[in-house]
């Protein structure tokens, strides 16, 4: 199994609804979003995926999160915009753009700070 990953960053604000029903204060993060993709076989170039193309595809997915208030943006108008939920949304959309019968998005990490990261695994393999 081969794996590659790429990082991008997005500056966005959110406001989480807490279990008490209250909401925390509106605040922002410079989220680091890291996508890992895997392939059992390399392509004819000897690559899982071209790094440049993967960066471009990841940016395509996250661009709409740039400098916005996430709570106003689907699906986060309905789903709490936690790092975990952001990771899942990015993973599923990226899979739709880069996945095929050879390549799949394995996991996406969303770093809220240098010390706090949530990971969504698309597959256990
Ligand atoms: Zn936060």
| Overall mean pLDDT | 95
Query: Can you summarize the main beta sheet?
Result: 4 strands, antiparallel
Structure summary, number of beta strands? 4
Q: Classify the secondary structure makeup into a structural class.
A: alpha+beta
* Rounded Rg: 15 Å
Count of folded domains: 1
- Helical stretch tally: 2
CATH class descriptor: Alpha Beta
Principal-axes geometry comes out as elongated
Order of helices and strands: EEHHEE
Would you give the CATH topology? Tetrahydropterin Synthase, Chain A
Commentary on this structure:
The chain is α+β, with helices and mostly antiparallel strands. The chain is built from two helices and four strands. The chain has one domain (about 1-120): 6-pyruvoyl tetrahydropterin synthase/QueD (Tetrahydropterin Synthase, Chain A). The protein has helices at about 50-60, 85-100; strands spanning about 1-15, 25-40, 105-110, 115-120. α1 (about 50-60) packs across α2 (about 85-100). The mean pLDDT is about 95. Bound molecules: zinc ion. The site of zinc ion (ZN) has 4 residues, from β2.
């Amino acid at each position: 199994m081969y794996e590659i990953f790429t990082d991008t960053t997005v500056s966005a604000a959110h406001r989480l609804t807490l279990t008490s029903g209250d909401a925390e204060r509106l605040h922002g993060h410079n989220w680091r979003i890291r996508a890992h993709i895997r392939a059992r076989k390399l392509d004819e170039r000897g690559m899982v995926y071209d790094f440049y193309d993967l960066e471009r595809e990841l940016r395509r997915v996250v661009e709409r999160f740039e400098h916005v208030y996430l709570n106003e943006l689907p699906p986060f108008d309905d789903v709490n915009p936690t790092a975990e939920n952001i990771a899942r949304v990015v993973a599923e959309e990226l899979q739709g753009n880069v996945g095929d019968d050879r390549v799949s998005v394995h996991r996406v990490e969303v770093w809220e700070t240098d010390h706090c990261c949530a990971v969504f695994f698309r597959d256990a393999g």
